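User: Hey, quick favor. My workstation is busy. Could you predict this chain's structure for me?
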Amino acid sequence: MSGPERLTIGEFARLTWLSPRALRLYERRGLLRPDAVDEYTGYRYYRPAQAEQARAISLLRRAGMPLEQISAVLDARGARRRSLVDAYRAATILEHQRAIALLDDVASELAGSDVLPSTSPVRRRPARSWSFVSCVLRTTAEDLPSHIEKASAALIHRAGASRDDVHPLAVVYHGEVGWESDGPIEVRVPTLAHGSADGSEPAGIELYVEVPYGEIQFPTILRAFDAVRAAAQRDGRRAAGAPRELYSVGDPFRCEVAQPVSEATASWPPPGPA
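Assistant: No problem, here it is.
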């Protein structure tokens, strides 16, 4: 069955720098099927033109793309294919930034340095009154992201058309969350239906820090909590509530760590650096 128009699996493996084992895996996953399979011997044969697709699969695997996503890329055409690759590239860059932030913290600790300062300045601003639907739960740092995601989805569904899209979603820390500590935390979704809300907060003043995407993870986000905690203890201030993460899910996505405060002065200057 082999000939100038077809290559054996060994020949095709040498052409594409892929092992026969990898080619069989890609065949099982439906990514790259042989052009023909001998019904008596089971030998597999490929066309030279299939080498381009094989190399594309190999490059995407070397970039760390899961096989399921590779399948979606191969099934797409034109601009859609490029958009899938670009989306994976952007996600890979963000994950790399998060890994670098963690490694910076580890290097600092191993060198005996203090906790790294927040990469963003602490600022202050007026905070408007708002009502919210909420749920309180206990979770360690390991399961924190998944618990926040599930609780937020349930509360957003509950709020429905009454959801206040102007105010960010809040995750309030009523207790310490770590690898062994489990809070509690409270997830709050803002609502305009004040009568059916679970709670509300009055207008006031808050200190806040913008958190780069690479630091929105434990323990690097603790830099921002440390920064607002320290600022809340200066210049006659005191904390007026629990610290919280604020998530604005629009475009662009934003994360802030905020701390409500009361201040000794009767009037305040315009919002700005704390």
